[in-house]
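Final paragraph of the annual report: two paired records, presented back to back.
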Amino acid sequence: MNNHLQQIEAAIAPLNKQLLSHSLYQEVQSIEGLRLFMEAHIFAVWDFMSLLKTLQTQLTCTTAPWVPVGNADTRYLINEIVLGEESDVDEDGVRTSHFELYLKAMQQVGASNSLINAFLGYLKTGNSVQDALKLAEVPDYLQQFVNTTFGFIASGKPHVVASVFTFGREDVIPEMFIRLVADIEGRVPGTISTFKYYLERHIEVDGDHHSHLALEMTSLLCGDSEDYWQEATEAAKEAIASRIALWDGIYAHLLAPATNDI
C-alpha cells in the first residue's frame, strides 16, 4: 500500500473506531430489531450500487458508439467489481445482485420492503433521487445519508467517488457486518439463512478481493496529484461520518418502540 493510501487510513482511523464501536450493534439482537435495521439499511445497499455504477460510467464507455475511455487498468478494476456486485450468486447458485439478495433476505426475515419499493417506484417514473425520497416519505436521517452520497456523485470527480466507495463502503463494510453476524444466527435459527449468507458473502468478496481492487483503483485515479489525494481524504472522512449519522438514526429508531414504521 502506498503512502497516500496509508495516510487516508490514518486520517479516518478515529472515525472508523467510532463506527465500529457504535451502540447500534448491541441493539440488533432480536428478529424485530433485525427487521427494523434491514428496512433502513437497504437504502445504504441501494446507494452503494449507485456509487458502483457511477464509477463504471465515469471510467468506461457504457454507450454506443463505443470509444475507449480512461485506461485499461481502471476499466478492468471497476468492471471486475461490477461483475461481482451486480451478478453474484445466491445461496442456491442463482445469479443475483447483492441488492436483490438483500431484498430476498428481508423477505425471509419478515422485514417490510414497502418503503424502498415506493422510493424505487418514484425513481422509475422519472423523479430525481431527492424528490423520490420526499415523495416516498423516507425518514430524514435516511434522506440525509442518500443525499450525501449523491453529493459525491454530483461532484463529477472519479477520484472522490472512488475514495467514498473504497474507504466509506468497501473497506469498512466487512468489519461492520462481522459484528452484526456474530450472535444473530444462534438467536433466530432458521429464519435468517439468506441474510447470514449475504453477510458472509459480503465479508468474503468485499473484505478481500474487492477491497484490494478498490484501493488500487483509488490510487490510480489520484495518481501524483496532491490535490486529488487531499480531496479523496476529505471525501473518505465525510463518507464515514455520514455512515455514523445513519447508524445514529437507525439506533434512535430501534429505541423508539412506539411504531414499527421507519
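The closing record of the year follows.
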Amino acid sequence: MNAPHRESLSGLDLRAEIDRLRKERNAVILAHYYQKPEIQDIADFVGDSLDLSRKAQATDADVIAFCGVKFMADTAKILSPDKIVVLPDLDAGCSLEDSCPPGKFAAFRAAHPDHIALTYINCSTEVKALSDVIVTSSSAEKILSQIPPEQKIIFGPDKHLGGYLKRKIGRDMLLWPGVCIVHEAFSETELLKLKAQHPDAPVAAHPECPPYILDHADYVGSTSGILDFAKTMPGDTLIVATEPHIIHQMRKAEPGKNFIGAPGADGNCNCNICPYMALNTMEKLYLALRDLTPRIEIEEGLRLRAKKSLDAMLAMASGTVGLGDLGPVPVGGD
C-alpha cells in the first residue's frame, strides 16, 4: 500500500509566498507568544489569545490565520463570525481543553446548581457556552473581586490558576481538576538549582504553574504581564517559568538582558515546549492561506451562547456591568 502523497514545498520562498497570500486574501496573521520565532516574526500581531482575537476583530481583514491552538481560533471565530478563520494545524489542541469535556462539565454544573461558573478561556466553545463568565489570567482577579462573597463559584478547567486565585484573594471555589501539561512539567528541584546559580535573578511565572513553582516566583502573571515585567525589572537576568518561546519577544525588546527558561525535571526546558503549539509551521501556514483550510466553523446558536460568557468577561473587566446584570446560563448543555 502506497504512503499518502505529501506535497513538496521545498522550492518555495515561504516567507515571500505567505506575504503574497496575506495581501491576496486580505488576511491578518496572528501568532501567540508560544509560537516558533519564525512564525512570530511574520505575524501581524503577536500576543495573548484573547487580545489577538480582539485585534483581528477590529481589522477589516477577510481572513484570520490564527497561529496558536484550536480554542484560540474558535474564540476568534466567536468574535468575528463573518471572517474566515483558519488554523494551520487542526490537531493543535490544548491539555486544559481536553481535561474538561463538555458533557462532564454540564453534569458537574447540574450537580451544583447554586454555583456560577467562572471558566478560564482555555476551554472549548461548548464549555464557554455552559459558563457564566469567561476569564483570562490577566482579568480573573478583577472579575472575581466583583462577585459577592456569598455566591458559590465553580472555577475551571485550570486547578492551578484557580488555586492561585484562592490563595491570593482568600476566596473559596470549587475547582475543576485540569492542568496545563507545559506548566506542570517545571521542576522545583531544578528551579532551586538554577536560582542558586543566579541568586540575584527574579523568577517570573505563569499562574498555570503548580504552587511549588509559584511559591518561588517574584512575579506571577499572564504571558503579556511576564513580558512587561521583563522590560521593567531591575537587574539583567530573569528566570522565566512559562513556555519558553516567549523569550523570543523578550530578547527582541531587551537585547541587553539575559533570559533563562525555567527547567523541567531533566534539568533543561525542552520538555516545556508546548507540543500543540509546535504543530504549526511556516509550511502549514502557507497552505492554510492558500487553500483557506483547515477552517473553523461554529454553529450559530452555539456561537452566540459562547459569546455571551465572553461578553460578560469583557463587560466586567471594563467595569461597565456587574454580575447581577448578567442573565442566567442554562446548565444542562447540549
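The mean pLDDT is 93. This concludes the annual technical report; the extension proposal builds directly on these records.
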